[in-house]
Amino acid sequence: MTKQGHYEGLRRRHIAAGTIIFKEGDAGDYAYIIEEGSVEISTVIDGKPVVLNVLGQGIMFGELALVDGRTRSASASANTNVLLTVVTKEQVNMRVESADPILRMLLFVVMRYFRSETSWRTRGKALKPPVIEEVGLTQPTIDLNRKIGEAVDLIRMESELRVAVAEKQFCLHYQPIIDIPTGAIAGFEALIRWHSPSRGFIRPDVFIAIAESTSLILPIGEWVIEESGKALNQLSALSEQPLFMSINVASRQIEEPTFTQTLVGIVQKLGINNRQIKLEILERSLFDSDIAQQWIQDVRKLGFPLSLDDFGTGYSSLQYLNDYHLDNLKIDRSFVWGLGNKTNSANLCKAMVDLAKALGMSVIAEGIETAAQAEVLRELGCDMGQGYYYSPPVPIEEAIALMTKPLAVSNPQPEL
Ligand code: C2E
Ligand code: CA
Ligand code: CA
């Protein structure tokens, strides 16, 4: 919205006594705050006007239609000379859109209840329940139903996720990370999977965001550290070189004051060297979190290597690469995919490799699916790579098998 729009939104309006501000059935483009005077809210029952309420200074009215997009359910007129502050649809919608989805849904449910109550009181009947069977639904009503549907689904999934945490319905798959020059396995990335009894297999992309917004990521993350640490011990026993385990860390975990302590505790208990646990963080975590910089310093001091995941997909600010001292940069698979398809991708990958090297960071390319992509990355000086070309993420038994037999790179398979 323009700056002028903001001022427009905050404009004030003087209205003379007796003037109608809006009528029942009008479109609801504005809400109002009464700064001076009083406003009468009325409706018509059996052809006769009935006053529902008289509102005074400091009260907001007309906000219902603004939020749910339906028409005015009553009329408003100036009881005295009034001074109103005008609130625009944009001002309200911006906030409703950015609110927590569950809170937003509760707001809509309360509003719907309020509207049907008002209607029942004034006409002796409730509004129809909010379903698609209504003839001639307006777009806002359909949007509202969709939003409520989405929010209800979120609430359901959230409760199921709580059960999943309690019943440990998760498992980890491990994807090998290859040292490109030698072709040897340098480490693994732990990737979580959720087998929900009611929904089946759910990808992490879908549930990690919910786990973060509800803080369920904290117990889940703890479980991931413990489980992947045990796997690292099993896999390391089969390797002559020290292996590392990459663990994905969400912003919510970084913000949790006890997280580092918990991490250190588990790693120590399992007898693992901190150097072997690589922490993968997303670019946006550096932006979203005020405490990221301190956290980065703390964990690096403890010896945990840090990897910047999905590099190139977010803000990609050179400033934070300079400010935060990270050990490793992961080139996002969208660039690697482009190596065979888009002419610019090789240049972009090269720029990323050179940038990382200039800053003293090593580079991992993810999503390598073909021999040609692996070869280009090798030529560019990329240190490590992972992707279906080498192996999809696999259960621990298969990861153990990968340690004992050479990788069959000629026949890449996606994860089943
Ligand atoms: P990510 O960290 O970028 O993980 C790499 C994703 O790419 C994984 O998806 C992996 O299965 C997929 N992948 C690997 N090789 C290839 C390939 O050659 N081609 C293609 N097309 N894809 C490939 P996945 O397992 O579905 O995980 C999705 C995201 O969920 C991860 O992206 C990560 O951000 C998040 N995630 C996974 N496990 C955890 C976890 O334990 N904690 C947290 N906080 N996030 C996790
Ligand atoms: Ca990752
Ligand atoms: Ca990634």
Tell me roughly what share of residues is in helical segments.
40-55%
Q: What are the segments in which pLDDT stays under 50 over at least 5 consecutive residues?
A: 1-9, 125-138
CATH class of the largest domain equals Alpha Beta
Counted beta strands: 17
Structural class: alpha/beta
Quickly count the helices: 16
Which geometry do the CA atoms define? elongated
CATH-defined architecture of the largest domain:
Alpha-Beta Barrel
CATH topology of the largest domain: TIM Barrel
Distance between the termini: 46 Å
The kinds of small molecule bound in this structure are: ligand C2E, calcium ion
Strand content: 15-25%
Mean pLDDT: 85
Describe this structure in words.
The protein has 416 residues and is an alpha/beta fold. The protein has three domains: 12-96, Jelly Rolls, CATH 2.60.120.10; 99-153, no CATH class; 168-403, EAL domain (TIM Barrel, Alpha-Beta Barrel). 44% of the residues lie in helices and 23% in strands. It contains 16 helices and 17 strands. It has helices spanning 3-9, 63-68, 89-98, 101-123, 139-167, 204-213, 217-236, 251-255, 259-269, 283-288, 292-301, 318-323, 333-338, 343-358, 371-380, 396-404; strands spanning 12-15, 20-22, 30-36, 39-45, 48-55, 60-61, 75-78, 82-88, 170-179, 185-196, 200-202, 244-248, 277-282, 306-311, 328-331, 362-365, 384-385. The strands form three sheets. The chain has an eight-stranded mixed barrel, surrounded by five helices. A four-stranded antiparallel beta sheet has the order 1-8-3-6. A hairpin with a 3-residue loop joins strand 10 and strand 11. Helix 4 packs across helix 5 and helix 7 (217-236) packs parallel to helix 9. The protein is elongated and about 90 Å long. One calcium ion binds next to strand 14. Residues 175, 191-192, 203-205, 208, 224, 248, 250, 309-310, 333, 366-369, 386-388, 393, 415 line the site of ligand C2E.
